[in-house]
Design a protein that fits this description.
Oligomer: homodimer
Strand content of chain A: under 5%
Largest interface: A-B, 60 and 60 residues
Number of strands of chain A: 0
Distance between the termini of chain A: 54 Å
Structural class of chain A: mainly alpha
Order of helices and strands of chain A: HHHHHHHHHH
Shape of chain A: globular
DNA sequence: GTCTATACTTGGATAGAC
DNA sequence: GTCTATCCAAGTATAGAC
């Protein structure tokens, strides 16, 4: 596989990531992707075998590398903090991908079937941490299901939401350009308190 | 306007709500809507003037009636609790609508422009409550922006997510069939702790 | 007001030249 | 490997009968 091939494939993936995140899978056309990527229409089919294959290729490259951390569950609070930090980092690194994933989850799209495996291991870790914490007495909550929904919802909800920007128009510049670690620390603090 | 007209319009709205929530605006066809509603293809255009008008009609009926509560901000904790209860009730009453709204928000769809007004008043209330609580010292948080994102994310994230159901397969039946008030109380508890 | 049939547009995928 | 031109399926909206 020569260099040019990788260039084109990467350009298509980049364009698709941007457009899928913004307009959804159905709302994005192959023509848009190719125009954004600056390549001919036929190349999506040639390199990937169709629009849907491009979609899956987006996740195959990024997500599996993420959920590799092993949690001992000896110190659930530390594990929780680590998990949140990792997720916030992923969300900052790949906002479009998280955005897209969120769409597919709430739509219960037919594509979720193949994405399920990635997502499951991710949230299974979180569930294990929560249960270990409850057993050890450092977390208190009545409904595991509700608690998981709170946390996942708070984590996955995209930060780049113009519809919310209006809410900050009159605010003093108190919190612009926060670093990943600051955001993660803030998130851990909020969620950990919720578990008391 | 005779009764039959309302019946057909209601059937179309019901079908559209269900399908939009599940497949998104772009992922839903007028043919699907009409088939689901059991009416002829032409009637969407006849009664509403097109697919997009059906979409807006869905929100015009439900959302404005919601955001009418007035908050005095004398007791931010009580206001917060009331706000959460109202939202949880809305989410339980109109899960498809919240689902759809969430999609449109995170996609930053072109339709959000017309929905913005509804959404803005809703979250402006929440923002006011948070700021009042911070001023009075009953809420502590560093970033208003992050905090709003946590709460909105936790609230708006759909509860009916098959992709998450697998996470509960081995759980004992600890928390099935929770009532609206139970869920709301649980939510208030979690989020209020996060604000300490 | 509701139906069937159809016009018109757009989308995904491919054929074939280079 | 990449392009242009084209095919075919599916979409929205409308015309016209009832």
């Amino acid at each position: 596989m020569v260099q040019d091939t990788n260039d084109v494939k990467a350009k298509i993936l980049g364009a698709a990531k941007k457009l899928f995140a913004r307009n959804g899978f159905e709302g994005t056309t192959v023509r848009q992707i190719c125009e954004e990527a600056g390549v001919a229409l036929a190349l999506v089919s040639y390199h990937f075998g169709g629009k849907e294959k491009v979609f899956y290729a987006l996740f195959e490259s990024s997500i599996p590398n993420y959920a590799t951390a092993i949690y001992t569950l000896q110190d659930p609070e530390a594990d929780f903090s680590h998990f949140i930090h990792e997720f916030v980092r992923l969300r900052q690194t790949e906002p479009e991908l998280i955005n897209l994933l969120q769409q597919e989850i709430i739509m219960q799209s037919p594509r979720m079937e193949k994405l399920q495996a990635y997502v499951y291991t991710l949230w299974k870790q979180l569930r294990n941490i929560l249960e270990a914490g409850r057993a050890k007495g450092c977390f208190q909550f009545t409904s595991l299901k509700q608690t998981l929904h709170f946390i996942i919802g708070a984590l996955i909800f995209t930060r780049n939401v113009p519809a919310l920007d209006d809410l900050f128009e009159t605010t003093v510049m108190e919190e612009n350009s926060e670093s990943v670690d600051e955001i993660a620390a803030c998130t851990v603090h909020f969620l950990l308190n919720g578990l008391k």
